[in-house]
Hints:
globular, single chain, 3-stranded mixed β-sheet, 45% helix, 6-stranded mixed β-sheet
Amino acid sequence: MKLKHAILAVALAFFALACKNESTEVPVSSTENENATTFDYNVEQFADIRVLRYQIPGWENLSLDQQKLVYYLTEAGLAGRDMMWDQNYRHNLKIRKALEWIYTNYVGDKTTDDWKAFEVYLKRVWFSNGIHHHYSSDKLKPEFSEDYLKELLAATNANLEGEAFEVIFNAKDAKKVNQSKDVDNVALSAVNFYGPNVTNADVESFYAKMKSPDPTKPLSFGLNSQLVRENGVLRERVYKSGGLYGSAIDEVVKWLELAKSVAENKAQGDALGLLIEYYKTGDLQIWDDYNVAWTAATDGDIDYINSFIEVYNDPVGYRGSYESIVQINDFDMSAKMAVLSENAQWFEDNSPLMDEHKKKNVVGVTYKVVNVAGEAGDASPVTPIGVNLPNANWIRAAVGSKSVSLGNIIEAHNNAGSTGRLKEFVHDEEEFQLEEEYGQISSKLHTALHEVIGHASGQLNPGVGETKETLKNYASTLEEGRADLVGLYYSYQPKLQELGLVDDWKKNGMAAYDSYIRNGLMLQLIRLNLGDDVEQAHMRNRQWVSSWVYEKGMANNVIEKVSRDGKTYFNINDYEKLRDLFGELLKETQRIKSEGDFEAVQALVETYGVKVDQAIHAEVLERNKQFTSAPYSGFVNPVLVPETNYSGEITAIKVTQPEGFPQQMLEYSKKYNFLPEVN
């Protein structure tokens, strides 16, 4: 896409799309930047997956100590990689190691369809950090037989027996995370956060007994542990040195201590010290102390995310998945977007929320553009494109948060090629031209509003518990929909032009609304198999937001469903009224969160966000067949290679690119193998 807005085009080139509490995830793209550079962003494509690579702009401008800091933090992240695999499913490490042994040692015929199917299956397992799809959480289905896998195991003297073998082919543990209504979500989820005989009721009763020393600063109970039943008694196995995952955590700590030795400033070093202490003890009070210190440490060029953080993989929202992202700040781009942070209170004061749900003092919203230097765990190969942390509501309210956009990741997405879907799914030429001229800017600005204003907006009523406790399995989709609605409400607002963020606020808003409705009601369905319900939190929130405003606006024909030449389109007839509807829904979603209204959030999500119009779904899948680009993208990481002198001291660190996706996955398995197969 060619952008006319010289300053803003550069400033906003690093913001995009929707979110992953609190990590932005990429919705289905209808068009991408055609102006690819000579750098080849594409690595390979298989199944429904496209693997890309990214660069690290500005690496050569860092001092040697800064490069060391990035290298140590990246190694710390990768050292914990296998924890994510084990968290995702109890047999993942055993299965991965057997499949990798076959892949590297089999000398038989590799031209057969069975072998090709085996290769694709292994690549899908690598991409998902386990045997369940990274997005749908359905178990991956191999297109080879049990007998063929047995042949491969025998031919390579590999070992994979019992349930770990059988589960690849049978119906057991079919869903990593089951978010269905009126079922035991814990018991029916394969994710390895709970013992096999632990239920929803067990989790609720176990944590209901836990009280924080300061009720106004609730601890994140369950964040860093596995809950199991032993001899009839529930107990936590805590992730820490000497505890669960201790051997990998000790490696993480080793590299974090090296990082602390080259910290850019005292605040950064103190925060790293608290993170190290948290890993050693598993103490959740230290985790909060660390988050307060990390949030306040805003100076310097290098930042990072590392630990058990996001709770999307827990069906009831307690336990954090391991992830690591190492970041280099882009201060020029960050300065251009600081205007949103500086005006956060204006947006809060002028929102359609009830007065009692508005924050009187929005503090500490720090929004920066960063370039990723390395990722691991839940952030790799599938990476967010933006992050807003910490997650604790009380820290956000009292101290603030850090919101970042991953600039080089977005650049890689935008330059990896064109999908050509746009003309197929827009209603008319006017909508097409709006998307061409304003689409990238509007979607990126929507994300900035989502992250900086949306997640910082609103407050809980006095005495209302944490959202994960009150809204349970609907907490994540409610929060992401709420932040989306903030972004949508303000995307169509003259204030954006007054602040110099757009040159035509109305056209920007129209493009944002067109894109959101097109994606929420149609395009994102290409990620589902026909007949499936919507289960992923972000897909749910885009559908319930879009479906709700579509239904509520039917009386005034706000959004019109058009059928032409056997194809369905959704055309927005009244953008002003649509904005009013977004505001109405935002007010209600904040009320639900502020009051902890479980019945209301359940009704909202189940009515509008779960079931799919099967006729439209079938039509979308058929229309999409002409496009070859896979709906999901992920990344290999650049390789940081230290050079040393005769004394072993690092004298320089070079950035190289991996040979390919399988090569990096095999290298990671060999180099960062710090956990046993069973933990």
